[in-house]
Amino acid sequence: MKKINKKYTKLVIIGSGPAGYTSAIYAARSNINTILITGPQPGGQLIKTNEIENWPGDYDNISGSKLMDRMLHHVNKFSIHIIHDIIESVNFQNRPFELNGQENNYFSDAVIIATGSYTKLLNISSENLYMGKGISTCAICDGFFYKNQFIAVIGGGNSAIEETIYLSNIAQKVYLIHRRNQFRADKILINKLYQTIEKNKNIIIYFDSVIQDILGNKIEIKQIKIYSKQEDKIIYLDISGLFIAIGHIPNSKIFSKYIDIKDNYVKISCHHNIMKTQTNIPGVFAAGDVSDHIYKQAITAAASGCMAAIDAEKYLNNNYK
Ligand code: FAD
Ligand code: NAP
């Protein structure tokens, strides 16, 4: 796509999840001339969930898209310029920093990386072949297509349990396949899963089981092959939909030439503990799941977005006034 012009601002925030939106609110209140770039998924990961139970204040279970819409409205209340673009590469060597998007180039004195993470895949044969043709990473987006059908969910964390519960109200049968014999998910969700099993009677759990292959006619999935460690045997399950919910990988690759990264997570706390969100490059900060290998919650992403904006303000005041 043709690039139309160059934009300079004091601060660019990359990402429109809870971390990006929160940092935008704080930057605006500090009167920092700021651009927020939404990226490929405006609203971030939370738009994939229909029920949030742990966002303080919203005790009546708000949907992810509604919460993110409210955050967007909150940002829009201020004079933050929101741009729909995807950053493809950066140059953090020179000042101002340069960010190259699909639509525009951006120049700024400070940057907040709030690019979150993307869904991890199984890395098995046929996964690419059936992506979008039976394989999905979002129950809310695609569940409807499997009404009254047999489907499987892979994973044992909060996402997999939530998706299984959600899908059991749509599909005829849901196989939940987890590689260990204990779920990683929160206790409250595990209890909810067992209550749903009691009520809907259409969820079958395969613990200690790994998926080995996805079989079909190249147009749609027909079966999955799993190995049950408990029974030491191969099992074939007839399904038409496969939901992969095995975790996420931070969106950090485009920064790796300049920014210190460990296990795909952007390293922060690089400024003698004074600025908790600073990366190894002064003026470049990171917030949310892209730099958090422990908590990975909406509230922690939002909180670190707040910290990054405060750190960025301090940095700009110290260096550009
Ligand atoms: P994200 O929400 O991942 O947002 C990243 C943003 O960066 C996106 O807007 C994306 O478009 C943008 N971006 C990425 N690459 C680029 C690029 N190259 N250029 C420009 N922009 C880019 N947490 C809870 O606390 N409660 C829940 O109930 C809950 N439910 C969840 C349900 C599901 C199904 C999933 C997947 C996660 C859930 N989480 C929940 C976790 C929560 O969604 C994340 O912790 C949170 O969204 C992280 O926020 P973030 O802003 O760091 O990143
Ligand atoms: P997660 O917590 O990392 O769980 C991933 C699950 O997939 C684990 O059970 C893991 O197994 C399994 N897994 C990983 N790699 C696998 C592979 N190659 N093959 C098979 N299974 C594999 O990921 P998540 O569930 O997506 O959650 C991500 C973050 O978002 C978490 O911090 C979570 O708390 C948050 N979140 C919160 C909510 C909520 O609050 N309601 C909802 C959704 C997500 P092991 O257990 O053996 O490692």
TrEMBL record:
Enzyme Commission identifier(s): 1.8.1.9
Cofactor(s) demanded: FAD
Domain FAD/NAD(P)-binding: 10-305
Keyword terms of this UniProt record: Disulfide bond, FAD, Flavoprotein, NADP, Oxidoreductase, Redox-active center
Keyword match Transmembrane: no
Co-factor: note: Binds 1 FAD per subunit.
GO biological process: removal of superoxide radicals
Description of how the protein assembles with itself and partners: Homodimer.
Name the record gives this protein: Thioredoxin reductase
Gene source species: Buchnera aphidicola (Cinara laricifoliae)
